[in-house]
Amino acid sequence: MISLKSSVTTATAAAFNGSDLGFRRKPLLQTQRSLCLPAHAARTERKPTLSMLKPFHLSSVSSFQPLKPKKSLTKCEAYEADRSEPIEPKEVAAAEAKSEAAKKLKIGLYFATWWALNVVFNIYNKKVLNAYPYPWLTSTLSLACGSLMMLISWATGIAETPKTDIEFWKTLFPVAVAHTIGHVAATVSMSKVAVSFTHIIKSGEPAFSVLVSRFLLGETFPVPVYLSLLPIIGGCALAAVTELNFNMIGFMGAMISNLAFVFRNIFSKRGMKGKSVSGMNYYACLSMLSLLILTPFAIAVEGPQMWAAGWQTAMSQIGPQFIWWVVAQSVFYHLYNQVSYMSLDQISPLTFSIGNTMKRISVIVSSIIIFHTPVQPVNALGAAIAILGTFLYSQSKQ
Asked: How far apart are CA 36 and CA 20, in angstroms?
């Protein structure tokens, strides 16, 4: 027992002496340190003693991780990889070129179909109005035919049925009101004057758009936009003054149609944002709502008695061919508007404006040729100036 205690005491003393020596500023020689160090068992006992004198602190576990080479810490390689441009295979480039060509061909077909349908509609519409001067009923039949065509398309699965709600129809209502007024006013105008004159006056629609947006909505436009209005207004005025068969009702109908369609566009842009309805279905819903709005007014203005009397007169003068005229003008009215809305889904507003300007030129020229409309050189000059101003407006607006 005495020997065991003495050995422990000796080891403890040696441990304290070792720790004291370990904290001296002057380092011991290697031979002296080896003589003073205790055995292995005593060295393991020294750890709690040293932690009591000076606590051992671990800053972070990450400090024990091996350092990575500096090259891996830089982003030079990633930066160079980001800046590198992949080389496209020839097959991919050829496929993209083919897809772009197909897209241009599709837009070209849309434009050609749009213009052709519009020309055919105006021709048959004018034939019907010459023999049957009831523009309110004619406008109603156009909307009714288009609505019936779309209902059949939805029922048979030819066209996808749109998903609408009450909010959709609320936002569509002011658009439908403006569309109804513009449609009836344009039909009234064509019943009184030549088709070419109506479309010359309707080419002044951009002037109404700028004036309404500036004074009612507070929008401002660049100076070239305002300058483009000068040839539009001057050309329309020159064409109206030199028109041989000028009629005030026809002139005012075209002017009201311009104003109504401007408000239609404004309401459509404001109310239909975020609505997932295609152009074809959007116009179908617009036609149905416009039909509900127009029908009671058409009955009140003209009435079934006038319609029946005029129908008998037209059938006696023209014959059964008159029925085909009525059907054709109703069908082609819906088709050309439907294609125009489908075109707007595929192209930019600038391209659409240019296409609309070219459409008016084709309608004016074709109607003059088919109906042998007498045109004076000054009248043709006014029409050309107005259409040129419309083209300049579409360029400066964008």
From this structure: 11
Rounded CA gap, 19 and 216, in Å? 93
The contacts of residue 240 (CB under 8 Å, 6+ apart) are 197, 200, 201, 246, 251, 382
List Cβ neighbours of 143 (8 Å cut-off, separation of 6 or more). 183, 287, 288, 290, 291, 294
Gap between the Cα atoms of 28 and 169, Å rounded: 97
225-234 burial string, b = 16+ CB within 10 Å, else e?
beebbebbee
Q: Give 310-323 pLDDT, tens digit per residue.
A: 999 999 999 999 99
Higher pLDDT, 355 or 177: 177
Polymer length in residues for the chain = 398
- The pTM score is 0.71
Q: What is the 3-state secondary structure (H, E, C) of 167-226?
A: HHHHHHHHHHHHHHHHHHHHHHHHHHCCHHHHHHHHCCHHHHHHHHHHHCCCCCCCHHHH
Q: Which two tokens stand for residue 259?
A: 């104003």
- Give the HSE-up count for residue 45: Cα atoms under 13 Å, Cβ half-sphere: 15
Q: Within 302-376, where are the H helices?
A: 304-318, 321-346, 349-371
For the chain, what are the domain ranges?
136-397
At 221-256, the pLDDT tens digits run 889 888 988 999 999 999 998 888 899 999 999 999
Q: Are 197 and 245 in contact (CB under 8 A)?
A: yes
Give me the sign of the Cα torsion angle 147, 148, 154, 159. Answer: negative
